[in-house]
Amino acid sequence: MNYWPLLGIGLVVIGFALRFNPLMVVVGAALATGLLAGLDLVAVVEALGKAFNDNRYISVTWIILPVIGLLERHGLQQRARAVIESVRGATMGKLLVIYLGFRQITAALGMKDIGGHPQAVRPLVAPMAEAAAEKSHGKLADGDREQVLAMAAATDNVGLFFGEDIFFAIASILLIQGVFESYGYPLTPLELSVWAIPTAICAFIIHGWRINALDRRLGRASGRVVGGALS
């Protein structure tokens, strides 16, 4: 048995301990492992390329996050706040209920990655919800501000969680189908996804009530009149 390829593990440990560039350390260790295993250089590079291509969706995250960071650095959150402040009659409750419905519908159609915390909530939804709350209720206390931001994040979670099961090709539906089939109950994914619709409707109603309850509580705390009535 050839133990020389195991030197690649040692190269990774040493490289990380010496704080070398992680990408260079991993690539160097992979090349060394392949060559010590008896592969030629072309075969090693081909294996690296295939592994990257097979898992390229992982790399998309590292492309999207810097883009969002640059947009935030150049005022994306400020522009989102300005937009919502210019909309007459905009409130935190209306905004988050609309986003909840949007998130559920898109997730039900299989577009579950169209929203999300890093790409939608942090740069857009949360600052817009905060601006809408301050527009209706005045300057928020730190605790109230954190509750608004938390509600924005929770809205995305609820919309995705209860919307995606309506899409019959989602992994959770296929898992449920497999479990039922193993016990002798053959069901199609479509039959299972249909029964997720009542749950999604209930989730929309309950979380929509929670959103508006928070909006009303903020109104009572501030004592301001919104939309012709004390919130």
Task: List the SSEs and their pairings.
Layout (H helix, E strand, L loop, with lengths): L6 H11 L4 H15 L4 H14 L1 H18 L2 H10 L6 H17 L8 H21 L4 H23 L6 H12 L6 H6 L1 H27 L2 E2 L2 E2 L1
If you had to describe this structure to a student in words, what would you say it looks like?
This protein starts with 6 loop residues before the first helix and ends with a strand. The model is unreliable at 225-231 (pLDDT under 50). The longest helix has 27 residues, at 196-222. Helices cover 75% and strands 2% of the residues. It has 231 residues and is mainly alpha-helical. It has a two-stranded antiparallel sheet with strand order 1-2. It is flat, with a radius of gyration of 25 Å. The chain has eleven helices and two strands. The protein has helices at residues 7-17, 22-36, 41-54, 56-73, 76-85, 92-108, 117-137, 142-164, 171-182, 189-194, 196-222, and strands at residues 225-226, 229-230.
